[in-house]
Q: What sequence folds into this?
């Protein structure tokens, strides 16, 4: 890599997308873009993690080994304070459930709190924060109400009102199932906040009856959620010894147990589902670790695209590849380019909510004057994770 060598072919390892990666690699070789210094960033990053997967896949005893598992678990252990705080908030919501579900104004306020919790929970990206001390991570995850209010000024694109209008319209949707899909990003605390948001949608609002979670099929970008991570998180939250006992009270421990037991019940009943366990789910899930931008979903993963087109809301989490690059085609758009335009051929395929904190250069949907002021104030605003984007694009009405 340091000497700008050519990217080698992915070996035949019995895993999916070997030919697809190697075909893209051959195309890059034809135009002299197949060495580490010049290969397109999006392909290079995806290729690297696919190659690492291949190394383990070809072994006898290490085929399912996750080299990042320990780091993911350690980061989650350092999230205890925020986890117990949120569990208590959810307990308080449960006591108000009957009144809340019939009060759209209160639900609107709570929805925005949940969106912000999920947005800033996304600050816990191990590939970004891997060298921070536990106290720094805890500070980054401060999800109290005061912190939420203070952080609003750091949301550079805020489509929460448009999102709420869309969700309210689901009350009149025809059909027995109103589904929300989460395309997951980071394991640990961020996955926890995703589960909390999903719980809120199906438990405390009348708008959703089912949530499907989409993981990555193998270790990806250090901290992304695999199926094993998903179930390990639920298991860890059920353990009385996973978090440091000094961070909890008897009440907060009870609140967490109460919430997680509900999640387990939802998993058993199919209210919560992992995409890999649904019919055809393994094949559909392969796309998330493929070599293409999400622009090409309809062509490269048509079954997945058709499934998501039936969803009432698709929430795509993440930074780097999974939002700022893959959703927008890995194109260097002007910062003021409308989000829907930057989605390219994916725009209008399904109602899409993108939640990201800025950790890469690709940013869209921000007024040019705002970007200019930030350039003067903070040259690293695109990459330092301090600012966030809440971007919503509705489904297009197609004939």
A:
């Amino acid at each position: 890599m340091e000497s700008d060598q050519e990217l080698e072919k992915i070996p035949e390892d019995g895993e999916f997308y070997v030919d697809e990666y190697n075909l893209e690699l051959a195309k890059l070789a034809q135009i002299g873009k197949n060495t580490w210094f010049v290969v397109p960033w999006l392909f290079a990053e995806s290729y690297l993690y696919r190659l690492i997967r291949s190394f383990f896949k070809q072994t006898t005893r290490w085929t399912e080994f996750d080299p990042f598992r320990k780091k993911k678990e350690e980061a989650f252990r350092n999230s205890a304070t925020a986890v117990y705080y949120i569990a208590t908030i959810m307990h308080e919501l449960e006591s108000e459930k009957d009144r809340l579900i019939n009060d759209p104004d209160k639900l609107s306020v709570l929805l925005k709190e949940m969106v912000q919790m999920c947005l800033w929970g996304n600050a816990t990206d191990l590939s970004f924060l891997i060298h921070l001390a536990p106290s720094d991570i805890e500070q980054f995850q401060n999800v109290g109400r005061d912190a939420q209010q203070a952080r609003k000024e750091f949301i550079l694109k805020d489509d929460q009102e448009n999102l709420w209008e869309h969700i309210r319209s689901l009350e009149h949707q025809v059909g027995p199932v109103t589904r929300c899909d989460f395309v997951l990003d980071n394991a640990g605390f961020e996955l926890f906040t995703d589960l909390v948001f999903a719980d809120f949608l199906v438990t405390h609002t009348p708008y959703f009856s089912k949530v499907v979670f989409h993981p990555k099929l193998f270790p990806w970008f250090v901290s992304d959620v695999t199926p094993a991570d998903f179930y390990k998180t639920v298991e860890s939250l059920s353990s009385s010894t996973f978090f440091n006992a000094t961070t909890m009270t008897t009440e907060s421990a009870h609140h967490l147990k109460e919430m997680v037991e509900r999640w387990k019940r939802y998993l058993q009943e199919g209210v919560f589902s992992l995409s890999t366990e649904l019919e055809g789910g393994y094949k559909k899930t392969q796309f998330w670790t493929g070599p293409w931008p999400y622009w090409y979903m309809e062509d490269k993963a048509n079954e997945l695209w058709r499934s998501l087109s039936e969803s009432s809301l698709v929430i795509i989490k993440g930074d780097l590849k999974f939002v700022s690059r893959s959703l927008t085609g890995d194109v260097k758009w002007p910062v003021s380019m409308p989000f829907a335009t930057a989605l390219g051929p994916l725009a209008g395929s399904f109602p899409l909510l993108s939640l990201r904190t800025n950790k890469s250069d690709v940013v869209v949907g921000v007024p040019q004057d705002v970007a200019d002021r930030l350039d003067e104030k903070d040259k690293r605003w695109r990459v330092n994770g301090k600012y966030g984007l809440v971007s919503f694009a509705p489904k297009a009405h197609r004939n």
In short: The first strand starts at residue 155 and ends at 158.
